[in-house]
Recover the amino acids of this structure.
C-alpha cells in the first residue's frame, strides 16, 4: 500500500516568488493536513482539508493557502516568499478520525534565497 | 488551547539502557495521544498511540500509557539500540475546533552509543 507522497522533495526559490507543493494521500484517506517544521518553531499546523473543504486553519498569514481535489490530493501554495518561509513542509493523511492517527509523507524541503 | 510539553533534551544513552521521555499535555475534552519518531532527512513515523484514559500503546519495544489523572503520556523502552537514535515527538489530537489538527511537543533528540 503506497504511503503519503509529497512532491517535489527539494525546492529552492527566490524571495518574492510563489511556490506550490503537492501531496497525494494514502488511498481511501480523505483528510489531509499540512505542517511547517523549522528548528526554531518546531512543528506548526497550517491547515486541514476533508472532502475538498478546509475544516481547520492554523495561525499563518494569508500568503499560505491550500486546496484539496475530488481525489483527495492536496496542494499548498505560498505566495510572495520570505526568507523565513524556509522549512520542511509535511503533509499527513488520515481516515478522518482523531483515533486513527495521521500518516506523514517525507516532506518538501523549501529553501528561500 | 491545547499544548504538549516534552522533557528537555538531548538524551544520550548507552546501548541496552532504559529510556524514558516525559510528556505532559493540556487539552479540553478527551484527546488522542501519539508518539512519532523522525529519522534524519525523513518525515514523521507513527510509533504508537492511545485513544482513551488508561490505554497503553506499544510498538517495537516502546510503550506509553495514557494517564488522564496526571495528564501524561511518557514514552519508555527497556533496552535501547543504536538504531533508536532519532527525534521523538509527543502529540495530541483533540476534538471540537482542534479536529484534524495535531499539536506537537518540541521534540526530544535521542542518541544511543554502542
Amino acid at each position: 500500500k503506497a504511503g503519503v507522497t509529497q512532491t517535489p522533495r527539494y525546492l529552492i526559490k527566490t524571495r518574492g516568488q510563489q511556490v506550490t507543493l503537492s501531496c497525494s494521500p494514502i488511498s481511501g484517506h480523505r483528510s489531509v493536513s499540512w505542517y511547517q517544521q523549522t528548528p526554531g518553531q518546531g512543528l506548526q499546523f497550517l491547515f486541514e482539508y476533508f472532502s475538498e473543504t478546509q475544516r481547520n486553519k492554523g495561525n499563518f498569514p494569508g500568503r499560505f493557502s491550500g486546496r484539496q481535489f475530488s481525489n483527495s490530493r492536496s496542494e499548498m501554495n505560498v505566495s510572495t516568499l520570505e526568507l523565513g518561509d524556509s522549512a520542511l513542509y509535511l503533509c499527513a493523511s488520515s481516515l478522518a478520525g482523531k483515533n486513527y492517527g495521521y500518516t506523514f509523507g517525507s516532506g518538501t524541503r523549501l529553501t528561500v534565497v | 488551547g491545547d499544548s504538549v510539553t516534552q522533557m528537555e533534551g538531548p538524551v544520550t544513552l548507552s546501548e541496552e539502557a532504559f529510556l524514558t521521555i516525559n510528556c505532559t499535555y493540556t487539552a479540553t475534552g478527551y484527546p488522542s495521544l501519539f508518539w512519532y519518531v523522525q529519522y534524519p532527512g525523513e518525515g514523521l513515523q507513527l510509533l504508537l498511540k492511545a485513544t482513551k484514559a488508561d490505554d497503553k500503546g506499544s510498538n517495537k519495544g516502546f510503550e506509553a500509557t495514557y494517564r488522564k489523572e496526571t495528564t501524561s503520556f511518557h514514552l519508555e523502552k527497556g533496552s535501547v539500540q543504536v538504531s533508536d537514535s532519532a527525534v521523538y515527538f509527543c502529540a495530541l489530537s483533540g476534538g471540537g475546533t482542534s479536529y484534524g489538527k495535531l499539536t506537537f511537543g518540541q521534540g526530544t533528540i535521542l542518541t544511543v552509543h554502542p
